Amino acid sequence: MITMEAFGGRRLHIAVVLAVVAVLWSVNTRSPPDSIVRTNADYDPCCAYPCDNQGVCLSYPDRSYVCDCTNTGFSGINCTSADFLTWVHHSLKPDPEKLHNLLTSDWWLWDVVNNVPFLSDMAMKYIFISRGDQVDSPVRFESDHSYTTLDAYFNETYFGRTLPPVPDHCPTPMGVAGPKQLPDVDELIKRVFLRRKFIPDPHDTNLLFQYYAQHFTHQFFRTNYTKGPQFTKGLGGVDSSHVYGVTEHHRRAIRLNKDGKLKYQIIDGEHFPPYIKDTPGLDMELPPYVPVNADTTFALGHPFYAMLPGLFVYSVIWMREHNRVCEVLKDEHPDWDDERLYHTAKLIITGEVIKITIEDYVQHLSQYKVRLRFKPDVIHGSRFQFHNRINVEFDHLYHWHPLVPDGIKVNESYYTVMDMAFSVKPVFVHGLDNFIRAMASNRAGKLSARNHGKATVPFLRKMLLNSRTIRFRGINEYRKRFGLKTFTDFMDLTGDEELARDLQDLYGDIEAVEFYVGLLTERDSPSLTPLAMVNIGGPWSVKGLIANPICSPHWWKPSTFGGDRGFEIVQTASLQKLLCNNMKSGCEGISFKVPPGTA
Ligand code: HEM
Ligand SMILES: *[C@@H]1O[C@H](CO)[C@@H](O)[C@H](O)[C@H]1NC(C)=O
Ligand SMILES: *[C@@H]1O[C@H](CO)[C@@H](O)[C@H](O)[C@H]1NC(C)=O
Ligand SMILES: *[C@@H]1O[C@H](CO)[C@@H](O)[C@H](O)[C@H]1NC(C)=O
Ligand SMILES: *[C@@H]1O[C@H](CO)[C@@H](O)[C@H](O)[C@H]1NC(C)=O
Questions:
Q1: Is residue 143 within 8 Å of residue 470, measured between CB atoms?
Q2: Fold of 1-93
Q3: Which residue, 444, 447, 422, is CA-closest to 523?
Q4: What is the pLDDT of residue 6?
């Protein structure tokens, strides 16, 4: 009886599904095929970006164009009419700004979601998949061609590119909008970016956060400036090369070759990385103006990290953590050789890096009240692609130099950014732990317009020029690409009359506002950054973290990490634990926020 009923029930089920499919099929039949549009423009009509919803514009010599809407879920001449399923999907999708306000508000539902594992998993699955869907995987573009090339995928010396460059035959640098010549960078910097008076971040963000941002992201933001701003020296994501080095040559140079550990030396009773003289063969690859002394410069996974105390601090902590993990593994597997201990510890460290980045760092950055969790298993079996490339727009978006204050107070001393450049001396004058406490109690700057300190302006200047060399499209094109509504005018962008007037003066047309300029001049949001920066950077960031191979179904299991103990280190990692395990004097109260009561 039971089986008969089950059989009948299933048959009915199939019939209903088939009927629904048939109905959808008929509603979903494509409207007229994409057709050629003749224009009387005297330029390539694709320069005006006529195709919406990620349709691809293809033009012909008679100034006609066609929008290729294949697989966009839209059809029509400019890919503007939604197919039935797209329409349903879009009507269910919340408005990004409303969703962001909800996610960052103290809503009772978040308490429920945070405390019910099944709901929390659903929320994380939604976040991982909806963000991941917004990133091309595989990558389609690089910066030397305004159309898809096979090189974009196979030539990994290129950064990926989310929107192809503005073709260089277009009437203006932004396509058709705006002036023939973009505003002078120095004037732009003076009017829009330069700090008048330090504006602290309103979320109590400290320098431990600022340096985490820089330390973590420089493992994959590694422009090869010698070759050009479109090329990278790095790989496709979170490879922990900021701890171990990006070439095998470099990695070998800093290994101890015993018990899986990294080389270390003891200074005042504490473990520190070796000096360059102790690491023959290390690739330094620093620009010639950077002073390097083999006897006193530290040898780290990333050579630049020996040039700023805050970056050095994280390198010391991660080196100690790696060596600590090696001891745990050796205890568990006394029979393992150096090679196996090293590689397994490296997988654990990579897991810890991702866990801390999501649960401590992105949690603070986003100010979401939903607790973010590193749970790769929630997307196993879904359409999520475990592959990633770094997009050059992401590198530009992440130029977060406004976080950097003019200086740092350490006990009774004060160091300006330039006092600290090229030297890690302050760490030894005060001691590592005191320096960490100082990083925790000094405020970082607000990520906004008019907050770039003098010391970092040269890097901003070069970045803006680079974005013009590789012909980024304007902010509104990126907003469209990431499903955000476009800005209608300068007030809509900034919410600030003076800034709106300055930008109006400089650009004339909202459609001509450059990518980075639009990101930093947008009105405040409840996060550390304005909304577009969250909703454009978020997809690249989530994709980069979760597409890591360790998150994929055949990797994400105890044996990858040397067994249950190693897997547990990954699954319980936190900023607090990282510091507690590796500071001499304890870590109470240290987080990404200044302690309560700090001025
Ligand atoms: C603490 C003070 C800082 C100094 C002195 C500094 C200095 C520099 C320098 C010298 C460059 C190379 C620029 C060039 O050659 O044109 C650079 C690039 C960059 N900086 Fe900073 N920076 C600082 C803080 C930060 C912070 C907090 C972030 C946030 C994550 C950041 C993000 C970047 C990025 C993404 C690049 C491009 C890297 C690449 O593609 O290779 N920087 N910075
Ligand atoms: C398609 O876009 C072009 C250029 O923006 C516009 O002139 C034209 O009216 C649009 N056509 C339709 C049917 O939307
Ligand atoms: C990648 O492209 C650049 C620029 O065209 C070229 O110089 C380089 O040789 C290419 N590399 C490979 C591996 O094809
Ligand atoms: C950077 O580019 C230069 C010039 O093409 C090349 O010689 C060098 O090998 C590149 N560096 C790295 C680390 O890829
Ligand atoms: C420096 O400050 C730390 C707390 O941030 C404190 O524990 C330490 O005693 C101070 N050292 C000196 C020499 O004042």
A1: yes
A2: Laminin (2.10.25)
A3: 447
A4: 44
